Amino acid sequence: MKILAIDTSTTHSCCSVMENDYIVGEFSINQSMSHNEILLDMVQEMLSKLNIDISEIDLYVAVTGPGSFTGIRIGVTTAKALAMALNKPIVSVNTLEAMSFGVFSENKKIPIIDARGGRVYYGVYKGYDNCEIEKPDLMDIDELLMKFDNSKEEIIFTGDAVKLYEKRILKNTNFKVTSPNLNSCISRNACVIGKEKFKKNILSDCYTLSPEYVRQSQAQRDLEKREEQK
Q1: Are 128 and 105 in contact (CB under 8 A)?
Q2: Residue 30 CB: number of other CB atoms within 10 A?
């Protein structure tokens, strides 16, 4: 079985291919170019180097957020379009779930994604089976750290916001942070999670699959505010 996962929920554009439980290809880049300028070229280049035709992909995995509103839309739309055009199944994987999945620990794991303005998207997971114990939400980083400040167990923070707030996190001796290799490029994790969902028949619909924003976009909030003022 060949699986293609696409993640554009953070500043990284990332795609991976898993074949028969091996990650056989991965392409990740973080630069000033927007996701829509490079994503399809990345997928095409990776598949070409692997000598895999796009028609040979059996399952598509879309990383659906939370994260960058524009980035998520690009990645999800691309995965949906490919699955729809080739009549292949698709599954969705939450960004925070995929980040946490790469941390092998029996303790609590809190993936954090920069939401700007001192805020982060976060979720709480635990154990080797990556059990979700708190659904994704948005919170000020200091409020989040205070929320778990009295925890007696070790808590591991991972994700792209770790670099931004590492000093604040490590003020608590029970808090740990992951190394840079675990904080981004999560499409390989999404491949594994996606296959498990496929085996359990937890599939998505190409027509209804949508990003997981956690909060509304600024444009939507502005629109609703204007409507209220009429």
Answers
A1: yes
A2: 13
Instruction: Give the CATH number of the domain where residue 11 resides.
Output: 3.30.420.40
Token pair belonging to 149:
């400040």
- Domain of 133, in residue numbers: 96-182
What is the chain's Cα-based Rg? Answer: 18
Selection from 70, 68, 63, 73 nearest residue 98 by Cα: 63
Tens digits of residue pLDDT in 43-77: 999 999 999 999 999 999 999 999 988 889 999 99
Element (H, E) at 140: strand 131-140
- 80 lies in a domain? yes
pLDDT tens-digit profile of 147-184?
999 988 999 999 999 999 999 999 999 999 999 989 88
- CB-based contacts of 224, cutoff 8 Å, min separation 6: 216
pTM reported for the whole predicted model: 0.89
**DSSP codes joined into one string, 22-44:** EEEEEEEE-SSS-HHHHHHHHHH
Domain co-membership, 135 together with 194: no
Place of tokens 């939370």: 66
Please give the tally of structural domains in the chain. 2
